[in-house]
UniProtKB/TrEMBL annotation:
Annotated EC: 6.2.1.12
Gene Ontology molecular function: any one: ATP binding
Disordered, as annotated region: 1-21
Gene Ontology terms describing biological process: phenylpropanoid metabolic process
PROSITE patterns, per database record: AMP_BINDING (PS00455)
Taxonomic lineage: Eukaryota, Viridiplantae, Streptophyta, Embryophyta, Tracheophyta
Residues that span the membrane, as ranges: 347-365
Domain AMP-dependent synthetase/ligase: 64-343
Organism field: Musa troglodytarum
Alphabetical UniProt keywords: ATP-binding, Ligase, Membrane, Nucleotide-binding, Transmembrane, Transmembrane helix
Protein name listed in UniProt: 4-coumarate--CoA ligase
Catalytic activity from the UniProt record: (E)-4-coumarate + ATP + CoA = (E)-4-coumaroyl-CoA + AMP + diphosphate
Amino acid sequence: MEEKAVVPPPPSTSPAIDPRSGFDAVSRTFHSLRPSVPLPARNRPLSFSSYAISLLPSPLPPLPAVVDAATGDALSFPDLLSQIHSLAAALRTEAGLSKGHVAFILCPARLDVPPLYLALLSLGTVISAANPASTAAELARLVGLSKPRIAFATSETAANLPGDVPTILLDSPQFRSFLAGGGGEVPPEEEVGQMDVAVIQYSSGTTGMVKAAALSHLNFIAMVAGFHASRKLPAERRRREAPDVTVVGAPLFHSMGLFFLLKGIALGETTVVMGGGGGVRVMLRVAEKYRATALTASPPVVVAMARWEEKIDLAALEYVICGGAPLHEAAARRFVSRFPAVELRQVVIYINTSLLFVYICLNSMRHQIYKYKLNFYKRKKENNSLKLLR
């Protein structure tokens, strides 16, 4: 049977939907007002890894795929894909991982984390990453929620893991051999469905005990599809003569850090990972060094940028993505005044609602700051909806 791309119906097909807010009073659901983008046929077996690799051009981009800001080391797209395939084979044969297993990951930002994430996703193994600064008691709680088959850590972080969880150290000769292709003969792959769980993430605990939220491969596929459809046209990109470089200030275990890492790889961009450390000064110097076109930041970073007085060259910077908490309007105004040519975007990621992704454009040459308080439902990314349950 011929497969066809699934295009979600536009919200305007229902007369009950408010064209200003996207709210359907009948179903009590907010719909995105952005045009829907095609998605792979829902019944087609497809992991996020396979989808991401399918979006890459041939030949592969000549620029680095991932850069470690702390060391300056970089991983090219050919090397990244080679490590993904080698690691997936080794984890199947040597570690016995397969579809439905959970891998608990406890390590700082490293160049071997991106191939690990994508190798696990290609197997249908669920990623469950946690903050390396967590205490042993906190980690025991998270391990109890996710019930991992295996853990990946470093020699510095492994000590806080429960002793009954088998652990592979990323800084060990064993793992280095996995990356280099030491997995032996590759057994047949299991089919991974788009609705299969891809990632388990954890709530912050601000409303009580920490809770786990499961996200599917389709959640990530749908979000990346929206970015892929809305990215700049090739002709415009050539005129700019500058590659897309995103400095990810959020840790890779955080929802924003994880998503922008995966998005950058899928779109053939360069992603510079910082792991959430170093402070504002280091982050801005990294953005200057790598001619960043985008920067992910928390509200305190945006506030500090607005007050920045030292000389710095951020001429390549096109937009700052602010997430993790709401940004106060006054802080947004100060940022607009300090960086008038940079678009400031507030992003809200709700992991408890299957990676609902909301953008609010706070400023640019085309948007006015007084729209800051615009109802955020109008800005949801493509293929997203939000239903009120109460």
